[in-house]
Amino acid sequence: MGTTVDLRDREMKIPLHRSAETSSDVADLYFSADVETDGPIPGPFSMLSFGLVLAGCFDGKVFSRPIKYEKTFYRELRPISDEFQVEALRVNGLDRGRLLREGTAPGTAMTEAAAWVTALAGRARPILVAYPLSFDWSFLYWYFTKFSSAGSPFNHSQCFDIKTAFAVKAHIPIASAGRSKLMPSLRSNGVHTHNALDDAIEQAQVFANLFEWDGNDGEDY
Fold first, then answer.
1. Of 9-23, 87-101, 129-143, which gets the smallest average pLDDT?
2. Domain holding 58: CATH number?
3. Is the confidence at residue 164, as pLDDT, over 80?
4. Alpha carbons 97 and 81: distance in angstroms, whole number
5. CA-CA-CA-CA torsion sign (184, 62, 113, 84)
């Protein structure tokens, strides 16, 4: 039997659905993620900030979204190398010099983030959500694996690509599934600011809208 969840409940009652294929209770708890960086890949370049927000829950039958996106995690990080791209800093507006002095140590930030995700998830399975997933996942998985004392709370593959989901539901090619192609009913009421937490919240709204959308049968949209 599946049970529904009310994400308005401050004690976070997570839905649990007993799968016929497993002997354990399973529910997916989604975390929308956004990162701001000073270059295209982790290691040579640094993740300067990241935001996570609880984006919804699915027990195999019922999807529930938060009434308000209040359960959030945000950190600005100390850079890990001397390399950076000026254009990347122009986009996110972060002061790399300030972060060298004041940014949170990556080990501290990633360990705290992993603990936060794990505590919220409880017995549920945490799933990282992004649009597109590839960039944000590459930085977060690398940073969790390298710096968190607990490793990645999303393991090596617990993730959801909003762009792919949109392409499948809309019956369109991946190349046509960018954010600019979203119809008004799927868009967020927020603004894309390039602040990692703001953008994670905006993305969480898009994710929930898309999850609840029945899709189309190939008609123009």
1. 9-23
2. 3.30.420.10
3. yes
4. 12
5. negative
Give the Å distances, CA to CA, from 78 to 41, 86, 110, 114, 185: 16, 17, 12, 18, 38
Where in the sequence is the domain holding 94, given as residue range(s)? 27-212
Share of the chain above pLDDT 70, in %: 86
Token pair for 214: 């029945």
Structure tokens at 48: 């300067």
The answer to whether position 173 is within a domain reads yes
Q: For residue 221, is pLDDT > 60?
A: no
| Residue 22 maps to a domain | no
Those residues with Cβ within 8 angstroms of residue 52's Cβ, 6 or more apart along the chain or in another chain? 31, 32, 33, 72, 73, 74, 113, 116, 117, 200
Residue 116, number of CB atoms within 10 A of its CB: 17
DSSP single-letter state for residue 58: E
State in Å, rounded, how far the first CA of the chain is from the last one.
Answer: 36
Number of domains in the chain: 1
Q: Please report whether residue 6 resides in a domain.
A: no
Q: Is the pLDDT of residue 51 over 50?
A: yes
Q: What is the pTM of this model?
A: 0.88
